[in-house]
Design goal:
The chain is α+β, with helices and mostly antiparallel strands and 182 residues long. It has a single domain, classed as Ribonuclease Z/Hydroxyacylglutathione hydrolase-like (Metallo-beta-lactamase, Chain A), CATH 3.60.15. Helices cover 14% and strands 33% of the residues. The chain is built from three helices and 14 strands. The strands form three sheets. It has a seven-stranded mixed β-sheet with strand order 1-4-5-6-7-8-9. A five-stranded mixed β-sheet has the order 10-11-12-13-14, with no helix packed on it. A two-stranded antiparallel sheet has the order 2-3. A hairpin with an 8-residue loop joins strand 11 and strand 12. The protein starts with a strand and ends in a 9-residue tail after the last strand.
Amino acid sequence: MTARLDILAEGYAHDRVASTVVLIRDERAVIVVDPGMAAHRDVILDPLSAHGVDPSDVSDVVFSHHHPDHTLNAALFPEARFHDHWAIYKGDVWTDRLAEGFELSPSVHLMQTPGHTLEDVTTLVRTEDGLVACTHLWWSAEGPERDPLAVDQALLERSRVRLLALGVSMVIPGHGGAFHPS
């Protein structure tokens, strides 16, 4: 089995900032990664609708980390479970669990990838085109090579090496379009 992945909104970080927002469908799971800042909520909702998904259909939302540019529009998904580096949240229930290796669906797993923050999480998605990583280990394909906000650049670089060792075929970075790692 493999998942279907679509980019709902391609992020950017210049004089304005928005996160890259991803939709993943795998069996019964409907997952949104990083529903953060956008010029308007329709930047997320319109492409979601074009893919035939209602916000109430979203079963899970993953935060790569807790900066507002990656979390701000979480409330658009009223029925979802929310995932971060150490727990799952739904309604008023907080369930402790580490993200490392957590399976959201048969083709979607989480991996702890600290560096940008100590709590960063990468969403790994097995697709028919290979393994895709939704991650903030890179801002975009264009850089910057050194993360200007990293809490630990050396740790970030070790997380990059660990991730790439998995044979990732595509990276969907925090603030840009998908790219093939070299």
